[in-house]
Amino acid sequence: MLLLRGFVIGFSIAAPVGPIGVLCIRRSLRDGWLAGFISGMGAASADMLYGSVAAFGLNTISDFMITGQSWLRAIGGLFLIYLGARTFFTRPVEGSFPERRFGLLGTYSSTFVLTLTNPLTILSFMAIFASIIPPGIELTTWSSIEMVVGVFLGSSAWWIILSVSAGALKYRLSGQLNQWIQWGSGTIIMIFGVAALLTFITA
Questions:
Q1: Which of 11, 44, 57, 105 could form a disulfide with 154 if both were Cys (CB 3.0 to 4.6 A apart)?
Q2: What sign has the CA pseudo-torsion 14, 20, 22, 28?
């Protein structure tokens, strides 16, 4: 069943904890599970977009993303450094509303853009799709849609599990521990950003 296969693909690609996962956990701890979930949905939407490119064989778009992957990593790296620094220097506030400056739209769009700037995502989708589709077989339009919907649902399932789990700890952490977690998560996010920039510089 292609819907189930797409679900497994979306879940498995979303599950490894990277900078988006750290952001999701941090926002869930700071602002509640909804903020973390909306962050994850930004990543899930980008996964669905990349899944569409792989499933529908949109070679022009995929070639463009792969060719420009160095610049995309640089942009993503700078954005990660900004988000990491903002996380590091922002003082934890009890009961704060998610991303008060930009609202939930900013929470969603930040992870959407970050996921899009990671060209490895589309390479992962293309490799996995190629491995599960027999050589010489082309997906129909409906089959492709079914796969893409499955990818979105699988990715969304992971983000709701992660955000609800992290959000459950929101009111169980002391102020000092919460501050240490914020410093730690901000540092990790900045490290991911620096690593992305280094791959651009050394490419």
A1: 11
A2: negative
